[in-house]
Amino acid sequence: MLVKTLSDTLDTAAHVKGEAFESRRILLAADGLGYSFHDTVVKRGSTQRLEYKNHIEANYCIEGEGEVEEVATGRVWPLRPGTMYVLDRHDAHIIRATVSDLRLICIFTPALSGEELHDADGSYAASK
């Protein structure tokens, strides 16, 4: 059995902060599960264009309000607690935290190592 807490991640290398986000990477590739599990905060007023070309990502909103836009169609969905969106086709998307910070529980497959940085197009390199 593997047991971790959010506090185990805070202020470690797995706690990544940027201008528009904060990613607390609780489970990573080194945990050997085949997926990674993140507690992510998207900061109010921020807009991020992302496209995970090498990963599938599922996101479940547990706090805040905002929206996600599918770049290919321009379709926009509101995000609020209880809403999930899945980037099952490596979808280019834009996430906006419009009303408040958004807090998302995110699962990536294949698992992230925790050392990834977004490329210029908003994606992560393929896992090794």
From TrEMBL:
EC number per UniProt: 4.2.1.108
Pathway: Amine and polyamine biosynthesis; ectoine biosynthesis; L-ectoine from L-aspartate 4-semialdehyde: step 3/3
Catalytic activity: (2S)-4-acetamido-2-aminobutanoate = L-ectoine + H2O
SUPFAM superfamilies on file: RmlC-like cupins (SSF51182)
Gene3D superfamilies: Jelly Rolls
Keywords: Lyase
Domain of life per record: Bacteria
Transmembrane segments: none
A single MF term (Gene Ontology): ectoine synthase activity
Gene Ontology BP terms: ectoine biosynthetic process
Pfam families xref list: Ectoine_synth
Coiled coil regions, renumbered to chain: none
Family: Belongs to the ectoine synthase family.
HAMAP family tied to this protein: Ectoine_synth
Its biological purpose: Catalyzes the circularization of gamma-N-acetyl-alpha,gamma-diaminobutyric acid (ADABA) to ectoine (1,4,5,6-tetrahydro-2-methyl-4-pyrimidine carboxylic acid), which is an excellent osmoprotectant.
Protein name: L-ectoine synthase
Originating organism: Roseovarius aestuarii
Gene: ectC
